[in-house]
Amino acid sequence: MKGIAMKPNVGSMDRMIRISAGIVLIALSLYFSSWIPAAPGVVMLATGYTRRCPLYLPFHISTEKG
Questions:
Q1: How far from 20 is each of 5, 8, 32, 57, CA to CA, in Å?
Q2: SS3 annotation, the chain
């Protein structure tokens, strides 16, 4: 039985923005000692690193060229 593999749907510019914003949000959470900005920061880092955004799927969005 084959697993469901998700194709990358996050392009290079989108990826750089996600990773940068994730780092900023995590830094803010450390500075203010609050976990609230860290939660979306971790998600942004994860989607930037893996180049896959599950939220793009239902809307058929892809910033990946190709």
A1: 26, 19, 18, 23
A2: CCCCCCCCCCCHHHHHHHHHHHHHHHHHHHHHCCCCCHHHHHHHHHHHHHCCCHHHHHHCCCCCCC
Residue 4: inside a domain: no
pLDDT in tens, 29-55: 999 999 999 999 999 999 999 999 999
Q: Which residue range(s) make up the domain with 41?
A: 12-59
Other beta carbons within 10 Å of 2: 4
Q: Give the pTM.
A: 0.86
